[in-house]
Design a protein that fits this description.
30% helix, alpha+beta
Length: 60
């Protein structure tokens, strides 16, 4: 009922606004040609997107 699907671009922009840098989209845990294609086409609703980054420390 409360699940929302967002694109990788949306997620990255939220992290950038929150002060993260060096963002990297991590591949999904599952593998296989068909799975990869459906993931890249944003057809796997609820599959999750994994992002890794570094939080920039505010200057004092």
């Amino acid at each position: 009922m409360y699940q929302h699907h967002h694109t990788t671009a949306e997620l990255l922009s939220w992290f950038e606004v929150a002060g993260f840098e060096d963002l990297r989209v991590l591949p999904p845990e599952k593998t296989g040609r068909l799975y990869r294609w459906t993931y890249e086409q944003n057809l796997l609703i609820g599959s999750g997107v994994n992002v890794q980054g570094r939080r920039v420390s505010p200057s004092r």
